[in-house]
Amino acid sequence: MEADDVTIREQNFHSQVREYIICFLLFAVLYIVSYFIITRYRRKTDDHEDEDAVVNRISLYLCTFTLAVSGGAVFLLPFSIISNEILLSFPKNYYIQWLNGSLIHGLWNLVSLFSNLCLFVLMPFAYFFLESEGFAGSKKGIKARVLETFVMLFLLALLILGIVWVASALIDNDAASMESLYDLWEFYLPYLYSCISLMGGLLLLMCTPVGLSRMFTVMGQLLVKPTILEDLDEQIYCIHLQEEALQRRLNGSSTCAYTRRGSTHQLTKELDSIRNMRNKLERRKLASGWEKNLLYPMVMLILLAGTTISVLLVALNILYLLVDETAMPKGSTDRGDIGNTSLSTFGVVQAVLEIILMFYLMASSVVGFYSLRLFEGLTPRKDDTTMTTIIGCCVSILVLSSALPVMSRTLGITRFDLLGDFGRFNWLGNFYIVLSYNMLFAVVTTLCLVRKFTSAVREELLKALGLDKLQLSHSPTDPESGKISANGHQKTL
Question: b vs e for 251-265, b when ≥16 Cβ sit within 10 Å of the residue's Cβ?
Fold first, then answer.
């Protein structure tokens, strides 16, 4: 009997060590990828080893850790779904036994823990550490900046706990709720993260429909459009003439001693715009026939099909919510439920489709986030992004990625139950919030698509009625235009 106990303990020990190694390897890959992404956009600084360089390096490591956690949150639900299907397809295979319920639950708990750590500790620390200079009268240095950062974090924690305490007391005024107000670990933190998850879900609800309609424009800029009834040689020739004229004007203004700086700057911007348009037209001219006439329509059809399927799945989920209580998003605490039953009606094919839709929704949410005027200032630029902007981007992506599994389950994109702390959010049990969330997503997404595909008809109607002149546009750089007028402005195709 004792030998059997020793064997069981050894098996549990080896299983835990294997899970730790797998989690470490997965996170190491995400960390390396995140580091290369951030260093690609981070503003290059001098190589002097001074105090600010050390602070920037520490903030860089913290941002890299946060972005890696965001990547883990994005891959969390797809990894769980594909693991479940693999275990169902090969239940007795020795080489995939490491894909078990304990590993999947452990990944969900680690992502939830690290998300809280990054959101409430690491990112505020990185921001305050960058902005700190040390208290007045104290000796300057890293220690003084660390001390000021910890004081600011303590005051921020008191402020947040006070807000949560007041909100909880106003919402629930019964005796049990009043007693729970003094429980920090079991009440404050789950309630606070539940509020953050609801805010992340609302942010996704605001960004994803905009991103779904914006994806057509983005892919249209990246791909080469078909040349129908266009003479690219003539357009390139006209652009060459305009470029030479602007270059002569710029050379003449630079030699004039009385030229205003504003006019020179304006000419430089117009010249850069003309050169960018010339490069795009030359790329369209050199593109192969299959790239112009086959790839672009296929990508547009794929985007339209993905968006349509997403809206249809949400509409079906609304019907399920109205007739079946089991359609409500819920959490699972059973560690042995992985690999027992398939949650997809069509097996692996539907699982792959669900995973593709999740990645599509995440990419659309990121595109929609940076397309909103409120967050345009956070758009990263290659080799010219400050650390403060990178911190804001990492926090935003972390909130979006952490809410992605919750949104996918709430909208009915997948039937895979939320595991770990992700299934403990209070608002997931509210029928009216979940139903309103689904209805708003379906309605807003449909309106954005209708507005996107009817914009050309609306512009033609405005031109026919003579109202197009009311829309004044003085910008010579329109990413969706394809022709250049004689005065340097682009004409819409």
Answer: eebeeeeeeeeeeee
What are the tens digits of pLDDT across the range 392-413?
889 889 988 888 888 888 888 8
Give the C-alpha separation, 162 to 215, whole Å: 41
CB 396 within 8 A of CB 368: no
58-62, 237-241, 315-319, 461-465: range with lowest mean pLDDT: 461-465
Q: Which residue has the tokens 């402005």?
A: 489
Q: Kindly give the residue spans of alpha helices, DSSP state H, lying in 287-347.
A: 289-290, 296-323
- The two tokens of residue 204 are 């996704």
CA distances from 194 to 111, 402, 413, 422 (A): 15, 11, 21, 9
Q: Which helix (H) or strand (E) holds 332?
A: strand 331-332
408-443 core/surface letters (b: 16 or more CB in 10 A; e: else): bbbbbbbbbbbbbbbbbbebbeeeeebbebbeebbe
pLDDT (tens digit, 9 = 90+) per residue, 142-190?
788 888 888 888 888 888 777 777 766 676 655 555 555 555 556 666 6
Mutual angle of helices 387-410 and 51-89, in 10-degree steps:
20
What tokens does 349 get? 């094919």
> What distance in Å separates the CA atoms of residue 477 and residue 486, rounded to the nearest whole number?
14
Task: Give yes or no for a contact between 419 and 331, defined as CB atoms under 8 angstroms apart.
Answer: yes
For the chain, the 3-state helix, strand and coil shares in percent, each to the nearest 5, are 75, 0, 20
Per DSSP, the chain holds a count of helices (H) and strands (E) of 15, 4
At 491 the three-state DSSP class reads: strand
Taking the C-alpha atoms of residue 353 and residue 313, their distance in angstroms, rounded to an integer, is 12
- Are residues 478 and 490 in contact, defined by beta-carbon separation less than 8 angstroms? yes
Q: Which of 388, 384, 378 is nearest to 132 (CA)?
A: 388
Using CA atoms, how far apart are residues 164 and 200, in angstroms rounded to an integer?
17
Based on C-alpha coordinates, what's the Rg of the chain?
A: 27
Q: Which of 63, 70, 58 is nearest to 30 (CA)?
A: 70
Separation CA 409–CA 437 (nearest Å): 12
User: Cα–Cα distance between 213 and 450 in angstroms, integer?
Assistant: 9
Q: Which two tokens stand for residue 102?
A: 């304990």
Alpha helix (H) residue ranges in 42-99: 51-89
Q: Nearest-CA neighbor of 379 among 389, 394, 391, 364?
A: 389
